[in-house]
Amino acid sequence: MPTIKIRKYKNSVYVIYSHKLNIFKIFTGIKIEDRYWQTESPKKNCPDYDNVISRIAEIKSRVLSASVSIRSRGIDPSADLVRKEFHDQEQPLLKEIPFWDSYDMHLKLLNCSESTKKKVRITFNVLKYFCDHVHYKPSTESFDKIIFGRFIKYLLDNQKMADSTIHRHVKALKAFFKFTYPLKDISFMKYSMLSTD
Asked: Residue 89 CB: number of other CB atoms within 10 A?
């Protein structure tokens, strides 16, 4: 019989679907410190409690919906099939959300220190400045290797940013895409810092 549980590993909260010794684990995008967590749910004193609970419930509901959808076809809801169904159902929904709205949602759902949130907001602003500068309207489909290359060139040539700063912005941007558009191939989003002796 399939089971769905909420688990926390190193502050990251996951929804875990298990069936016949196989599991499908999906990151909720929520990070919670141990002091705000109890067994399978956040404590009521957890920062931004309502949004955190809502996000966890939403992911759990989508996993359940994927499992029910497969079972309704008379197919055994294995972890691999539920994973595929989950992403197939999720992707059309995410495409309807405008790019900047999805980034704003990502910012609101981040459960981390204010200093970390501030850094993520800076990346958000830098990306907006780039889009305005090159007259680019961002979308998950059109943000590809070429656009990413132009973004890096903009940070180097126009903003005169240091390697470490660019690396931090790329890391924050990857985290956003990984959380909001899990099916998107972001293997091209790499920035290697120059090594110095």
From this structure: 14
Q: Where are the alpha helices (DSSP H) in the chain?
A: 49-71, 79-95, 99-109, 114-134, 145-153, 163-180
Mean pLDDT across the chain, nearest whole number? 85
User: Is 0.70 surpassed by the pTM of this model?
Assistant: no
CB half-sphere exposure, 197, CA atoms < 13 A? 0
Helices 79-95 and 49-71: crossing angle in degrees, nearest 10, is 120
Residue 105's pLDDT band, with cuts at 50, 70 and 90, is: confident
Domain ranges of the chain: 3-95, 99-180
Dihedral, 147, 153, 159, 165 alpha carbons, nearest 10: 90
DSSP 8-state code for residue 195:
P
